[in-house]
Amino acid sequence: MGHQLSTIFTSLGRFFEYPVKRKPICFYRQEDFTATGEPQRKVSETVKTPMTDYDKLVELFYKRLAEQRQYNQEMKEQDRRWSMQKVVERFSGWNEVTIANLHSLFLLFDNQSNGMLGFDDFCAVLESLGDETSMEIRKEKFNAADTDNDGWITYDEFLSLVYNFSPQEKGQLTGLALLCNEVAENIQFVSNLTVGEQLEYGLF
Questions:
Q1: Torsion of CA 100, 102, 107, 109, to 10 degrees
Q2: Rounded to an integer, what distance in angstroms lies between the CA atom of residue 151 and that of residue 119?
């Protein structure tokens, strides 16, 4: 019996190294130890070599590139704000939120991606806003806005058409122009709500 056990242990010795090395216990960081539990050797910090003139030139190039990109972004935002302010000045009674919402709708229904809307696209915009005017009135207003009679209206023509779709009363917006403000206010109100508040209002 003892001889058999000795034979078994001898054969197992080919597969296992004695004593068996323990793996690191849980409160040690795994990356500090090898798979067999031995501490990892600390890699000495690499010696920092001084920057060459080429390295300095590359670093300066990327620094100036980042500064130029930031400047371009700021100028682009400034131009956008200036352009938006000019549009708001043209359409008294509308604010930036209303203009931005109409711009989003224009892009959404620009099915040909040509920067213009056809009559069907224009009707889709009106329906998304909740307008209930007849097709005859819509067609009449659209044709009046289509100055070159090519069946398309540009973004500028679109804004003028929506703004003047219903005549003002005592200098106050009415009809479709007023509806655009109401829709924009509702969108802004919803966008300011938290997810929980949106759930309470049943928006999901």
A1: 160
A2: 7
Tokens of 185: 């206010």
pTM listed for this prediction: 0.56
Q: Is residue 125 within 8 Å of 111, Cβ to Cβ?
A: no
Partners of 154 in beta bridges: 116
- The single-letter DSSP state of residue 149 is -
Cα distance between residue 145 and residue 156, in whole Å: 10
Q: In degrees rounded to 5, what are phi and psi of residue 153?
A: -125, 140
- 163 and 91 in contact (C-beta within 8 Å)? yes
Give the integer Cα–Cα distance in Å for 152 and 165. Answer: 17
> pLDDT tens per residue, the chain (204 residues)?
555 555 555 555 555 455 555 554 555 555 566 666 666 666 554 456 788 888 888 888 888 888 888 877 777 776 666 677 787 888 888 988 899 899 899 999 988 888 899 999 999 999 999 999 999 999 999 999 988 888 899 998 999 999 999 888 888 888 999 999 998 888 888 787 787 776 776 665
